[in-house]
Design a protein that fits this description.
CATH topology of the largest domain: Glutaredoxin
Strand order of the largest sheet: 1-3-2-4-5
Order of helices and strands: HHHHHEEHEHHHHEEH
Structural class: alpha+beta
Largest sheet: 5 strands, mixed
CATH architecture of the largest domain: 3-Layer(aba) Sandwich
CATH superfamily of the largest domain: Glutaredoxin
Number of strands: 5
Shape: globular
Low-confidence stretches: 1-31
Distance between the termini: 58 Å
Number of domains: 2
Strand content: 5-15%
Radius of gyration: 25 Å
Length: 268
C-alpha cells in the first residue's frame, strides 16, 4: 500500500473523483466547511478505495500528465511568438528555401540523435514538396559533452554554411545522415568526408561559437531540452492560431499539416 506521503496528491485528486460518494453519504445536509475529523475520514475512504481500484490512480496520473504537457506546450508557444525574430533572422543559422517565403520550418537537431536521423528523410521530402517554404536548421548539439563528434559536426555544418552557402550546407547535412552513424557512432572521418563532398576548406573556416551559443540560449528560452524540436510558423505575425510547436519526432503528414496551417493564416 502506498504511504501517506506518496499518496497525498493521489488522495486529494481521488477525493474529487469520489465526491459523488461523499455527496451521497451527506445527502440532505447543507454545504459546510470540512472539519479536520471529516477530512481525516475522507482520507481514510480514499486510502481504502484506491488500492482496490488501481484504475483510478492510472486515470489520475494520465490527467495530471496531460495537464502538465498542455502547460508546457502553452509555455513553448508563448516563447516562440516572443522569439520569432531570433528563430528566423539569425544570419549565422543555415537555411534553405526562398528568403521571401511566407512560411518557415525551424528544426533544432543533433547529428548524433537517432530520432533526428529518422526525421531527416522526412524533412527532405517536405523540402522537395514545398519549394516555397524556408527551412531553417538550428545546430543544437545536446550530446556534445557525451559525444565530441556531435559538437564537431555542428561546428563544421555552420562553417560550411558560412563559407559555401545553402546548397553546400544541405549536401553536407544529408551526407552526415547518410552515414547512418548516430548515438555515439559518428566519427571525425565521417565529418571530414562529408565536408570534402562540398569542397569545404577547413583552413579558411570562420568562428561559429557565437552562433552555437545563440542557438543554445534560444533553445533554453523556448524550453527545448532535447532533439528534435520543430517550429512551423509564418514569417510574419506569429500567433497561437498559426504556429505549431513539435518537441519530438513526427511524420511527413504532420509536418505538412503544420505547414498548411501556417500558410492558410499567412494568406488571410
Amino acid at each position: 500500500m502506498l504511504t501517506a506521503k506518496r499518496t497525498t496528491l493521489a488522495v486529494l485528486t481521488a477525493g474529487c473523483l469520489l465526491s459523488g460518494m461523499a455527496n451521497a453519504a451527506e445527502a440532505g445536509k447543507s454545504a459546510t466547511v470540512s472539519t479536520p475529523e471529516q477530512e481525516a475520514h475522507t482520507d481514510e475512504i480514499a486510502k481504502d478505495y484506491l488500492p482496490a481500484h488501481p484504475a483510478v490512480l492510472i486515470e489520475v496520473s494520465q490527467r495530471l500528465q496531460a495537464q502538465k504537457q498542455e502547460k508546457q506546450q502553452q509555455a513553448m508557444m508563448t516563447a516562440v511568438i516572443q522569439n520569432q525574430a531570433a528563430l528566423l533572422d539569425d544570419k549565422g543559422t543555415p537555411s534553405y528555401g526562398p528568403a521571401s517565403a511566407e512560411v518557415a520550418v525551424v528544426e533544432f537537431f543533433d547529428y548524433q540523435c537517432i530520432y533526428c536521423a529518422r526525421l531527416a528523410p522526412e524533412l527532405e521530402k517536405e523540402i522537395k514538396a514545398n519549394p516555397g517554404v524556408r527551412f531553417v536548421f538550428k545546430e543544437f548539439p545536446v550530446f556534445g559533452l557525451h559525444w565530441p563528434a556531435s559538437l564537431s559536426a555542428a561546428k563544421t555544418g555552420l562553417q560550411v554554411w558560412q563559407q559555401k552557402g545553402a546548397d553546400a550546407y544541405m549536401k553536407y547535412h544529408n551526407a552526415i545522415y547518410a552515414t547512418g552513424h548516430n548515438e555515439g557512432q559518428l566519427t571525425d572521418t565521417d565529418i571530414s568526408e562529408a565536408a570534402k563532398v562540398v569542397k569545404f576548406d577547413a583552413g579558411k573556416a570562420g568562428d561559429v561559437q557565437g552562433t552555437l551559443d545563440g542557438i543554445n540560449m534560444l533553445a533554453r528560452q523556448l524550453n527545448f531540452s532535447g532533439t528534435p524540436a520543430l517550429v512551423v510558423l509564418p514569417s510574419n505575425g506569429a500567433s497561437p492560431d498559426n504556429v505549431t510547436v513539435i518537441p519530438g519526432y513526427l511524420s511527413t503528414e504532420a509536418i505538412q499539416m503544420a505547414i498548411n496551417k501556417a500558410a492558410d493564416y499567412s494568406q488571410k
